[in-house]
Design a protein that fits this description.
Elements: H1 2-18, E1 32-33, E2 44-45, E3 51-53, E4 57-62, E5 69-74, E6 79-81, E7 114-122, E8 132-141, E9 146-150, H2 157-165, E10 173-180, E11 192-195, H3 207-218, H4 223-236, H5 258-270, E12 276-279, H6 288-303, E13 307-312, H7 317-320, E14 325-330, E15 333-339, H8 340-349, H9 360-368, H10 372-379, H11 396-408, H12 411-424, H13 439-456, H14 462-478, H15 489-505, H16 511-526, H17 532-562, H18 568-596, H19 599-615, E16 629-630, E17 633-634, H20 635-638, H21 640-653, E18 657-660, E19 664-667, H22 668-672, H23 684-711, H24 713-729
Parallel strand pairs: 9-13, 9-14, 11-12, 12-13, 16-17
Antiparallel strand pairs: 1-2, 3-6, 4-5, 7-8, 7-10, 14-15, 18-19
């Protein structure tokens, strides 16, 4: 205790000296704080605040038949400002419209209360000294308010947020209770929204198109109703000025800035009109202007009735004044929960008052971030013009212990427990699922969206089409004028081999686009907007027109430049065979991309696989002469190059007759069997095409398994955990 007291006195003296009028600037607070009872004017300047303790007086009652809580509270054990400077700077108004499109009436959202009691989360290997990521946390959030979870890096902010939303990974274990409207039942689909820190958007769509397709994937009902909720989401997030602009950010397309993109990701969740909205780091990678605009927009959203709970690492003074309640974490320990102004008083009571001219959030993180100890070690022998670095001379470990001990014995902690007791003593209206779009609807939406995206982004298939045409022209000019003599057979076999193998190898250009599709799927699947089957089927149907366009254009150029047999049925088989080859190659690329999730390793693996398949295709050595282990089994049998080339050669040479001298002639099968192994059966080419079709579906089945039981295991694990919690509560 003597150590704690000495450190507190040291910090108090350094803070007062640092903020002394004689040593710094005239005394003036620059805290942005809420005016009591005001939601429409969220921030204002305050000068010379005088703290007054007020008694906790919370009254809560549930409306009969309603799904929200009416509450009237004066801040529990929180300070209030007795004087407001009449000459303070005006507060920026909360935007009512969408940002310049005229006044629009946005429907209210029925919020829900959420409370958590003794919440502890453990994850093996997450912490160096303990598996507990969150330790005995208590708190609550009301409709129409913004509750922020703040703390330094690795303090448990995101873990606590995911625990409240029921989105912990299967490796995590949660202890304690979470109540929604007084009930311990889990939140059903559509009753809450969760926005990840990093979200995947589709850059080739406009904001309105992106939100509309998202609404089609999420909501049942008629198209007109979905258009109305999309417009509501656009208005709520102040995106009217950007509704018809491309999101951008892919294929060198210019689009929205990071602030607007972040608001689009939040608007995607608003189309469901959730009661509770969880946001992980809404200010992630935003500058000060974009951050303030984001928080003012979220304040407007909260004023519509939605319950907002989000994490934040650090904020400016203006942004800090918009918060209603703050949960301060450090190393998983709750150092404070309550009103934002009460947090300032809490630090002051603990002996760490916020210096004048310093942002409250900066001051909080300075006191509880242990990384500052390293800075102290670096700067302890340095001096500035006014002496020692007074802003970095506090032991954070001591500060954390002091703040935690002060909070546990404070009236703020007691008022939190009282409020949680009142929230949980009687169950309110349970949240209901809002229904999902049908599987057929989702497949149709994903197919149409894929067609639109693939047609707009040149890196999906247009680039590959150009590469295929260049390759085909090169091969065609290289092998042109072969004629139809017996001596041209070996050269024509080489031309077919080069065409199939190199065209398949050029498919590597589609790896980045496929990886982006997988990331978009993961983002949508995490919120149950999509599934593995509908994603694969939609992607497959959407890619067919482009793959067929590539196959028919490349095949026609190659077929006539090399001078293959002039027969329409043989030409159509050539086109279909190459189309199946592209389908197989697309499935192979998709499966490799699912395994690696990285452009470099996916490209390297795909090149290696294609090289092995080319070696085992039977051109460099006849398949029957290949070594049985490894090369024949399994490489020769899994090489789709082998089946494609064999089918094309059977299509070209079966039924063909070559003259040997003036009297003798041999069949096409006899002419080619020395250079490539084919079957004399005329139906063999159709069996090869069936094998290619089976391989195309086989690779996509592998992708389904990877998505369903690999990438999507976190989603299914969360759903299983929710069902277990629901059954236990019953």
């Amino acid at each position: 205790m003597e150590e704690i007291q000495s450190q507190s006195d040291l910090y108090r003296s350094s803070s007062s000296s640092a903020s002394s009028p004689t040593s710094r600037v005239p005394s003036s607070h620059f805290f942005y704080v809420r005016k009591p009872g005001s939601l429409r004017q969220p921030i204002s300047f305050e000068d010379s605040p005088e703290w007054e303790d007020t008694e906790a007086d919370a009254r809560m009652d549930y409306e009969a038949g309603g799904d929200s809580i009416n509450y009237a509270t004066t801040t529990p054990a929180s300070p209030s400002l007795s004087k407001i400077n009449s000459g303070s700077m005006a507060s920026p108004p909360v935007p009512e419209g969408g940002g310049g499109g005229g006044a629009a009436v946005v429907r209210k959202i029925a919020g829900a209360s959420i409370a958590w009691k003794d919440l502890t989360v453990t994850m093996k290997g997450k912490r160096k000294y303990s598996d507990k990521v969150v330790k005995s946390s208590n708190g609550y959030a009301f409709p129409g308010t913004m509750t922020v979870i703040m703390g330094p890096a690795k303090s448990g902010k995101s873990t606590l947020l995911r625990a409240l939303a029921g989105r912990l990974p299967p490796s995590a274990r949660m202890y304690g209770e979470v109540f929604v409207n007084g009930s311990k039942s889990h939140m059903p689909y559509g009753s809450y929204g969760f926005v990840e820190r990093k979200t995947q958007l589709i850059g080739s769509l406009t904001v309105r198109e992106f939100l509309y397709y998202s609404a089609l994937l999420q909501l049942p009902g008629f198209l007109l109703q979905k258009r109305s909720v999309v417009e509501d989401a656009i208005q709520a997030m102040s995106l009217s000025d950007y509704a018809n602009k491309l999101i951008g950010g892919h294929c060198n397309m210019k689009g929205l800035r990071s602030g607007e993109r972040r608001r689009v990701s939040i608007a995607r969740e608003l189309v469901m009109r959730p009661h509770i909205l969880f946001i992980d780091e809404p200010l992630y990678h935003l500058d000060s202007v974009s951050a303030l605009l984001m928080m003012v927009t979220l304040k407007k959203l909260a004023s519509m009735g939605c319950t907002l709970v989000f994490t934040i690492y650090q904020s400016s003074t203006e942004v800090f004044g918009l918060f209603d309640r703050i949960c301060l974490l450090s190393n998983g320990n709750t150092l404070f929960f309550g009103e934002t102004l009460a947090c300032l008083q809490h630090f002051s009571n603990a002996g760490f008052p916020c210096p004048i001219m310093q942002s409250p959030s900066d001051h909080f993180l300075r006191a509880i971030n242990t990384d500052f100890d390293r800075i102290i070690a670096m700067c302890k022998n340095w001096q500035d013009d006014n002496g020692d670095f007074s802003a970095v001379n506090m032991d954070t470990a001591v500060a954390i212990r002091t703040l935690e001990a002060t909070y546990k014995s404070s009236a703020d902690a007691a008022s939190v427990e009282t409020m949680i007791l009142k929230l949980t003593e009687r169950e309110g209206t349970q949240l209901k699922s809002k229904g999902k779009a049908g599987a057929a609807t989702r497949v149709a939406v994903l197919t149409w969206r894929s067609l639109l995206v693939m047609s707009r982004e040149w890196k999906y298939y247009w680039l590959r089409l150009i590469l295929y045409m260049i390759l085909t022209l090169c091969i065609g000019t290289l092998y042109s004028g072969l004629g139809h003599s017996l001596s041209s057979v070996a050269t024509r076999v080489a031309a077919v081999f080069v065409f199939v193998s190199f065209a398949s190898l050029l498919g590597i250009a589609g790896i980045p686009s496929l990886l982006k599709e997988i990331k978009i799927y993961r983002s949508e699947a995490s919120n149950q907007h999509s599934g593995a089957f509908v994603f694969l089927l939609g992607q497959f149907l959407g890619s067919i027109p482009f793959l067929f366009l590539m196959s028919i254009s490349s095949s026609l150029v190659f077929y006539f430049m090399v001078g293959l047999r002039d027969d329409f049925s043989l030409l159509m088989y050539f086109v279909l065979n190459f189309f199946m080859c592209l389908l197989v190659n697309e499935g192979l690329m998709l499966s490799i991309a699912c395994i690696w999730q990285d452009v470099y390793w996916s490209s390297l693996t795909l090149i290696s696989v294609h090289v092995i398949m080319m070696l085992a295709a039977g051109h460099f050595r006849i398949r029957s002469a290949l070594p049985k282990p490894v090369w024949t089994y399994p490489f020769a049998y899994i090489s789709f190059h082998s089946y494609a080339i064999q089918g094309l050669l059977e299509n070209e040479y079966l039924g063909e007759v070559f003259a040997v001298g003036e009297v003798r002639s041999i069949s096409g099968y006899q002419a080619i069997r020395g250079g490539y192994q084919i079957s004399p059966d005329t139906n063999s080419k159709w069996r090869n095409m069936l094998v290619l079709l089976a391989m195309a579906f086989g690779y996509r089945l592998l992708v389904y398994v990877l998505l369903r039981f690999g990438l999507n295991k976190n989603v299914s694990g969360r759903l299983l955990l929710c069902r277990k919690k629901d059954n236990s509560s019953r």
